[in-house]
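RECORD TYPE: inverse folding
INPUT: structure tokens
STRUCTURE:
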């Protein structure tokens, strides 16, 4: 276990409309509960407020993929209980320790006999770990005794063969915890049926069935009621099927998120395994560690860092984070036998919370729903008034209602039909599926992003990435290949060529050099029986260890001959790490390794060819600094290795004092400076240029030498030329850190490269960029990167080199640590937003056309051309099938030809309004003309069932218009609407299914859908009406639209009214 360019304006949107920064004067009057630009770390009260404001017909479905506020409160309550338990244990042990000091005795529970194949049972070992019973541990012989009972070698680990793993799983359980079973398909059917309008329609269908049978007899009276019930059932089944498939995708993604990879020692080798494969009894006790500091706040609630040692405080709890240092842990509990496992077993899976787009779409759905309810109310009122005033005619042309003559049963049946039409208008008008289209496209996108090496941990990050205006990227492993090799080496007396030529170094010199490398590392070397050498550790560590092996280093022999007394782990703040090593003759060497110019600055001597320390003269210092600069300018990572002697009697003997001892870092003797080559990733320059073209500025923030950073930035295209490499475009972290907040805000947008930066410098840069209105994405891999990852709008951690702390604080994990994958995430983020806009345009066109046609027809003639069953089918096309077809469009290169989407830019753009208006007006005009003059236009004057044929043509033409318009919606601002259509198999499949079902409904389900069979001429007329929408879309796209969004005019007018009223 170890802790381990294009031109840009001064604001992402321009000074005149920096809406995201909140500088537009009218935005302060926006009090909409749906105006949430970021749900990351949003207050619970704010999230509760939009839920209360939303118009919802089916709460269980609408809020399925939003944060469960009650569950979050339960989780916090459980954590408080566990923290109280941990604090009670700590207090009890302090009391017992005090008592033992007074009475001279130690009380502990006696060891109970082990069970099965091991010398200790699961219950006892869990009890010791959970109660942190140091006394019981000591009675077992400490960590060494416990490892013997568990048949675990502290150096080599367990054997790890299948038989051994099976026995351990049987004795101590597996590293999993009980999880709630996924919802069954029938649960989704039940939830889909909770829609208020569908319930009303079912009631209406039952009433219509009863009244129809009573008034018309069983042979004909059951048609209307059963038709409506069947249509409602079809809507429920299709909706439930879509939701069920979506939930399965989320379950698979959650499995990937939980499957953490980590290094363990098995049979003497370091191997990477899944967290589920830890089988020794991830609570544990510390075997050995150096400067190990653990953040236990997730369990205890205390924010202070706890320092661990193997004698007085060895217990480590799962769910806690390593803040500093490194160590080896003997695992004592897995799964539900740990405190964290108990918590996770009691808390069901979190769906990640709602996204800003989801909240905004709930606002849009609420607004449209209110309009729809109003329209439905008007239609209901008009139809009822017309009915009772005798203006509603029957099929024979006579009034349906005649006062004093029409039977009550007939009146009730007619009223049920009127109410059914009004309620069905509500079903079509209230876009209940609109907010759910976000989760549909996110589920699809997240699954596809896994193939693009990106694992989304937080749903909102996927869409927020589409708004990113800047990416602050690490260098090593992200922009470079992370395949490091030592290619140059300088000692104090020569440049070694080749760098691994051991013959050029005196043996005593080599001896002390490899001693420092062997001990001052977090990597390891394993030599198999066949002689094959395997090196593990970070890429830098592997490069130096491989170099030392070529110089003749015997890793195991050096580690066993001498012992590490105290360790100062490398960290990104200090840029160096050190170790005090005691040899068999009691000689103590303090070895240091780290950033070349920093370690060199502490050197007062260098070792010459005679193995004698020589004073570091000014000329020699200048010579070595020039060598460092020369290597850095060639994009080499420069690492210096130095040491000093230290008196053994000055080393603290008390463990507490030793843990606080600061390794001496002055008067060092330089041994070597190595240059490590880490080439740029092949496609990274094109990716950077693609980002710049898309309005996303890429900034490199690295801990490396400023000259190395400059060389890589030039190679990657982050810096266009040497002329750009000046402050503040190229800046050191300490310089940026020294500025005041106002000065940092002033220059932050000009920064392209920050070298020798600490994690805190990265955090300061992120904060400054956010204050300037940028949407910031940040990459990070270290524990110390966690604050910046948390602060950023989108935190991107590295899947290979990233620590678990960094991954937990991030929103997206880049599985291959590749910058190209980051750019793919930007494309997917923009795709999510674009797909939702396509669906909105398509759905609103159907909404407007269906509502206007039925309202105008109802008011003018007292009848509606689209029946309840037909409207339910249209709703199915528009809602579930439309979302599946349009919300799953794959991203295109065209998305990267536009600027980032502002988080407060309107969802419905002027282009969408234009397209919507053109198509809706065409459909309304044509279908209303058919409604009022269709019989004569279609030459049906003397044909039987003329009215039914006309209404069937209206219904058929309306549906076919939607099929053609679905193609238009794919490309709202492009002329070629067919580009890439065959690559989207789901879109093609849904179009085909819709066509087949429409033919079946018209030709074979006439009784249910109130349609009649059409001849081929009528089909051609319907297809002709629908096909006109394609050339009409081309003409419409030639109409220019104003740059100022339509919605902004309403905001300005509201602001003026508010201003005049104050």
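DESIGNED SEQUENCE:
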């Amino acid at each position: 276990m170890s802790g381990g360019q294009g031109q840009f304006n001064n604001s992402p949107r321009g000074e005149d409309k920096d809406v995201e920064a909140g500088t537009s004067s009218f935005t302060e009057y926006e009090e909409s509960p749906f105006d949430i630009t970021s749900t990351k770390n949003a207050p619970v009260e704010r999230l509760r407020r939009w839920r209360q404001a939303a118009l919802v017909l089916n709460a269980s479905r609408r809020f399925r993929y939003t944060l469960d506020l009650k569950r979050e409160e339960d989780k916090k309550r459980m954590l408080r209980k566990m923290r109280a338990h941990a604090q009670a244990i700590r207090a009890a042990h302090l009391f017992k320790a005090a008592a033992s000091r007074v009475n001279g005795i130690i009380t502990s529970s006696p060891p109970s006999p082990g069970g099965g194949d091991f010398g200790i049972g699961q219950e006892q070992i869990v009890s010791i770990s959970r109660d942190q019973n140091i006394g019981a541990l000591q009675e077992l012989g400490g960590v060494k005794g416990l490892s013997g009972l568990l048949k675990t070698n502290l150096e080599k680990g367990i054997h790890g063969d299948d038989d051994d793993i099976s026995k351990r799983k049987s004795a101590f359980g597996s590293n999993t915890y009980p999880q709630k079973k996924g919802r069954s398909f029938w649960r989704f059917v039940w939830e889909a049926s909770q829609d208020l309008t569908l319930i009303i329609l079912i009631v209406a269908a039952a009433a219509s069935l009863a009244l129809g049978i009573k008034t018309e007899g069983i042979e004909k009276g059951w048609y209307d009621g059963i038709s409506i019930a069947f249509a409602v059932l079809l809507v429920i089944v299709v909706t439930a099927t879509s939701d069920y498939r979506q939930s399965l995708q989320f379950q698979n993604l959650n499995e990937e998120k939980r499957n953490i990879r980590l290094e363990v020692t098995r049979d003497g080798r370091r191997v990477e395994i899944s967290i589920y494969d830890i089988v020794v009894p991830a609570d544990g006790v510390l075997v050995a560690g150096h400067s190990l500091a653990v953040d236990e706040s997730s369990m205890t609630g205390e924010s202070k860092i706890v320092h661990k040692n193997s004698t007085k405080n060895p217990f480590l709890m799962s769910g806690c984070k390593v803040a500093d240092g490194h160590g080896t842990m003997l695992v004592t509990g897995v799964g539900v036998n740990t405190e964290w496992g108990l918590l996770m077993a009691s808390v069901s899976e979190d769906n990640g919370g709602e996204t800003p787009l989801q909240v905004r779409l709930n606002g849009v759905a609420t607004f449209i729903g209110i309009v729809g309810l109003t329209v439905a109310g008007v239609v209901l009122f008009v139809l009822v008034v017309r009915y009772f005033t005798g203006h509603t005619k029957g099929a024979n042309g006579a009034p349906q209602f005649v006062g004093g003559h029409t039977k009550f049963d007939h009146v009730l049946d007619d009223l049920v039909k009127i109410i059914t039409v009004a309620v069905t208008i509500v079903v079509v008008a209230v876009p209940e599926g609109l907010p759910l289209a976000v989760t549909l496209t996110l589920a699809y996108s997240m699954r596809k992003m896994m193939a693009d090496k990106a694992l989304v941990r937080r749903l909102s990050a996927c869409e927020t990435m589409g708004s990113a205006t800047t990416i602050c990227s690490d260098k090593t492993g992200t922009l470079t290949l992370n395949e490091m090799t030592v290619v140059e080496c300088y000692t104090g007396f020569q440049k070694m060529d080749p760098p691994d030529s051991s013959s050029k170094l005196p043996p005593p010199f080599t001896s002390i050099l490899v001693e420092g490398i062997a001990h001052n590392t977090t990597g390891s070397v394993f030599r198999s029986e066949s002689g094959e050498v395997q090196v593990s550790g970070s890429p830098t560590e592997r490069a130096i260890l491989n170099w030392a092996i070529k110089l003749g280093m015997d890793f195991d022999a050096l580690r066993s001959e001498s012992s590490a007394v105290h360790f100062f782990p490398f960290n990104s703040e200090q840029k160096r790490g050190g170790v005090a090593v005691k040899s068999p003759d009691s000689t103590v060497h303090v070895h240091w390794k780290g950033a070349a110019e920093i370690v060199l600055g502490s050197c007062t001597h260098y070792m010459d060819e005679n193995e004698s320390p020589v004073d570091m003269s000014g000329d020699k210092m200048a010579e070595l600094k020039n060598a460092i600069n020369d290597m850095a300018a060639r994009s080499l990572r420069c690492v210096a290795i130095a040491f000093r002697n230290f008196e053994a009697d000055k080393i603290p003997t008390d463990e507490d004092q030793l843990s606080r001892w600061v390794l001496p870092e002055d008067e060092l003797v330089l041994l070597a400076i190595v240059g490590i080559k880490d080439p740029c990733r092949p496609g990274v320059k094109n990716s950077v240029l693609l980002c710049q073209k898309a309005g996303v500025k890429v900034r490199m923030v690295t801990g490396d030498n400023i000259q190395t950073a400059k060389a890589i930035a030039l190679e990657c295209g982050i810096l266009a030329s040497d002329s750009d490499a000046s402050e503040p475009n190229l800046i050191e972290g300490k310089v940026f850190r020294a500025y005041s907040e106002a000065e940092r805000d002033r220059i932050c947008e000009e920064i392209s490269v920050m070298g020798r930066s600490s994690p805190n410098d990265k955090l300061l840069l992120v904060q400054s960029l956010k204050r300037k209105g940028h949407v910031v994405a940040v990459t990070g891999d270290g524990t110390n990167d966690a604050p910046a990852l948390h602060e950023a709008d989108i935190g991107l951690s590295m899947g290979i080199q990233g620590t678990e702390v960094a991954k937990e604080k991030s929103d997206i994990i880049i599985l291959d640590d590749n910058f190209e994958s980051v750019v793919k995430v930007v494309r997917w983020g923009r795709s999510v937003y674009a797909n939702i806009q396509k669906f909105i345009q398509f759905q609103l066109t159907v909404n407007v056309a269906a509502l206007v046609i039925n309202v105008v027809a109802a008011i003018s003639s007292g009848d509606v051309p689209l029946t309840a069953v037909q409207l339910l089918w249209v709703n199915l096309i528009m809602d579930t099938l439309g979302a599946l077809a349009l919300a799953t469009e794959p991203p295109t290169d065209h998305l990267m030809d536009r600027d980032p989407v502002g988080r407060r830019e309107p969802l419905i753009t002027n282009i969408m309004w234009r397209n919507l208006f053109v198509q809706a007006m065409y459909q309304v005009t044509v279908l209303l003309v058919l409604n009022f003059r269709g019989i004569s236009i279609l030459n049906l004057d003397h044909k039987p069932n003329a009215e039914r044929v006309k209404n069937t043509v209206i219904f058929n033409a309306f549906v076919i218009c939607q099929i053609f318009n679905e193609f238009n919606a794919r490309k709202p601002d492009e002329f070629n609407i067919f580009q890439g259509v065959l690559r989207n198999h789901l879109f093609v499949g849904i179009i085909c299914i819709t066509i087949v079902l429409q033919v079946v409904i018209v030709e074979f389900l006439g009784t249910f859908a109130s349609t009649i069979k059409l001849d081929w001429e009528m089909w051609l007329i319907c297809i002709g009406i629908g096909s006109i929408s394609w050339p009409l879309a081309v003409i419409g796209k030639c109409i220019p639209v104003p740059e100022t969004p339509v919605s902004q005019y309403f905001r300005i007018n509201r602001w003026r009214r508010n201003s005049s009223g104050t």
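NOTES: The two ends are 63 Å apart (CA to CA).
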